[in-house]
């Protein structure tokens, strides 16, 4: 079920995520690549993020290879609504990847100053 939930989250399939969670899919179940649904979700899909987080997904799970968290990914993509949702559910804006970058640093590097400013204000 981990692969199915991760696939639904990656596609931004809100109805599919809801159905799988209701059916007992583990919210932090790993897909075949060892990543959780929150890590692979479509970052612009705030509703999917909220569903996973409300079901208990861990917002600070880091990628083993890069050290990035879902907050890093959402910030780098410029998805302010998703960033705000992750922060509301205790995502750590001070988390650093393997190169020492915080989510705000990544947002700033690619020009998402609204995201960087929000994260820096926390």
From TrEMBL:
Pfam (any one): Ank_2
Keyword presence, Repeat: yes
Keywords: ANK repeat, Repeat
UniProt KW Iron-sulfur keyword: no
Name under which the protein is recorded: Cyclin-dependent kinase 4 inhibitor B
Species for this entry: Merluccius polli
Each ANK repeat, start to end: 66-98
Cellular component annotations (GO), alphabetically ordered: cytoplasm; nucleus
Coiled-coil segments on the chain, per record: none
GO biological process: negative regulation of cell population proliferation; regulation of G1/S transition of mitotic cell cycle
Recorded GO MF terms: cyclin-dependent protein serine/threonine kinase inhibitor activity; protein kinase binding
């Amino acid at each position: 079920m981990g692969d199915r939930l991760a696939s639904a989250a990656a596609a931004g399939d809100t109805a599919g995520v809801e159905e799988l969670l209701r059916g007992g899919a583990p919210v932090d179940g790993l897909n075949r690549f060892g990543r959780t649904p929150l890590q692979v979700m479509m970052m612009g899909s705030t509703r999917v993020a909220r569903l996973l987080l409300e079901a208990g997904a861990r917002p600070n799970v880091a990628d083993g290879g890069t050290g990035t968290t879902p907050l890093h990914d959402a910030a780098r993509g410029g998805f302010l609504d998703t960033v705000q949702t992750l922060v509301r559910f205790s995502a750590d804006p001070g988390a650093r990847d393997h190169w020492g970058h915080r989510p705000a640093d990544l947002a700033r590097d690619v020009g998402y100053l609204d995201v960087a400013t929000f994260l820096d204000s926390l």
